[in-house]
Amino acid sequence: DAGVGVKVGVNALGRKNRLGLFNAPAAVICDLQFAASLPRQELISGLGEVLKISLTSDLQLFRELQQAGRCALEGGFYDTPSGFSIVERSVRAMLRELSGNLWESELDRSVDLGHSVSQSLETTLTPSIPHGQAVAIDIALTLVLGQYRGITSEHLVDEVLGLMKQLGLPVYEPKASVEVLWTALQDTERHRGGKQRVPLIRAIGDLPVFVSDLGEHE
Q1: Is the pTM of this model over 0.90?
Q2: First to last CA, the chain
Q3: Are strands 15-22 and 7-12 parallel, antiparallel or unpaired?
Q4: Which residues make beta-bridge pairs with 7?
Q5: Dihedral angle sign, alpha carbons of residues 157, 163, 168, 169
Q6: Interatomic CA distance for residues 131 and 42, integer angstroms
Q7: What is the reported pLDDT for 23?
Q8: CA distance 155 to 161
Q9: pLDDT for residue 30 is more than 70
Q10: 111, 94 in Cβ contact below 8 A?
Q11: Catalytic residue among 7, 16, 52, 195, which?
């Protein structure tokens, strides 16, 4: 696993990215011609991560996804100005989020939206769920938890879930039982300094609210 950040990792011991390094790249090449060769499910997965960064960092990116994201599933996304803009804004938003906290000394991280239970969903469920789809399911759960807590409005929940469905992203996984989700969150807590630090959305493009007192009943 590697990208525009400084982490590189490999799967080990039945877990995703369990072994790795902080290793800043000299350069990252984003050639969108390669994206044109991806299978549909990989494009959908990529949009799951784009959605994540838009929710915590860039309202305009979210609006561009609403307007042009569907084109990604029709083959012409990466040849259009709107497609290029979505990719560019995604990278810039991710770099803004990471730049002040490269070594993760601060563990309340907006980029952890969609990553509280998703990694366990990827590795424990059969058949396996691709990363972007697992992130989407995690985001959907986060939205509803935020609504339950009075942090996320019903309108915002409906708007985001509507976009997810438009992009072909799942909003629910029947095999993700309470036991599976709770075990996944406990595993995540262990590498977030002993706290859940689950980001809940209060406004699109705004800093999330971090909570560490979610209960199994929720």
Answers
A1: yes
A2: 32
A3: antiparallel
A4: 22
A5: negative
A6: 9
A7: 87
A8: 10
A9: yes
A10: yes
A11: 7
Tokens matching residue 120: 């366990």
Is residue 172 within 8 A of residue 212, CB to CB? The reply is no
What are the tokens at 173?
A: 């996984």
Residue 178: partners with Cβ closer than 8 Å, 6 or more residues away: 216
At 72, the pLDDT band (50, 70, 90 cuts) reads low
3-state helix/strand/coil string of the chain: CCCCCCEEEEEECCEEEEEEEECCCCCCCCCHHHHCCCCHHHHHHHHHHHHHHHHHHCHHHHHHHHHHHHHHHHCCHHHCHHHHHHHHHHHHHHHHHHHCCCCCCCCCCHHHCCCCCHHHHHHHCCCCCCHHHHHHHHHHHHHHHHHHCCCCCHHHHHHHHHHHHHCCCCCCCCCCCHHHHHHHHHHHHHCCCCCCCEEECCCCCCCCEEECCCCCCC
* Sequence letter at residue 159: E
7 is catalytic: yes
- Cα dihedral sign, 67-168-140-94: negative
